[in-house]
Recover the amino acids of this structure.
């Protein structure tokens, strides 16, 4: 049984795109507060592992898949924007700059564990105040790391990306499928 330890509709859609349909979706209710001076990659890895551990404890016979996506500007972890002001702050910080999108993927099953960290680079154009206002009006930023979703209307604000597109959306499919297949091969 495959359990996706996430409430993210984007992760579920990405898995379906790869032909993988989890048997269950069980969001892991954990504290996602960054530790003092925690670096973005360490934070993403810690959160993804904590999600798998939490759900695996309740479902020890299942294969549990979890991920955490972080938008980072240097050492700074940008929030999942919950308010317009948070989203505006993120967009102003990202305007005209490159930033990293890091997704940690963790899989735990009776056959073993797998972990991966995937990094992509995104650059926003220099944003005018009117462009920020227009994007905020879409509400596409709500609950999104860094206050944007590349697969939505923010795409017209991004002239450059390098790395895995599905990583930026929220789940690097190549690495995730490779890890799932590796675990399946170990069980046979």
């Amino acid at each position: 049984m495959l359990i996706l330890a996430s409430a993210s509709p984007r992760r579920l859609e990405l898995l379906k795109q790869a032909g993988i349909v989890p048997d269950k979706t069980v969001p892991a209710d954990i504290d996602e507060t960054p530790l003092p001076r925690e670096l973005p990659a360490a934070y993403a890895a810690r959160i993804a592992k904590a999600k798998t551990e939490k759900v695996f404890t309740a479902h020890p016979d299942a294969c549990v898949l979890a991920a955490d996506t972080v938008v980072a500007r240097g050492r700074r972890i940008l929030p999942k924007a919950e308010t317009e002001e948070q989203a505006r702050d993120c967009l102003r910080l990202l305007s005209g700059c490159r930033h990293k999108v890091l997704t940690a993927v963790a899989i735990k099953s009776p056959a073993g564990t797998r972990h991966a960290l995937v990094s992509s680079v995104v650059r926003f154009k220099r944003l005018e105040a009117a462009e920020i206002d227009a994007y905020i009006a879409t509400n596409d930023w709500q609950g999104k790391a860094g206050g944007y979703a590349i697969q939505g209307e923010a795409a017209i604000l991004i002239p450059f990306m390098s790395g895995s597109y599905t990583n930026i959306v929220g789940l690097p499919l190549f690495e995730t499928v490779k890890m799932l297949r590796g675990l399946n091969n170990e069980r046979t």
In short: Helices lie at 9-17, 40-58, 84-94, 129-138, 165-169, 173-187. The mean pLDDT is 95. Strands lie at 2-4, 24-25, 63-73, 76-77, 98-109, 112-123, 160-162.
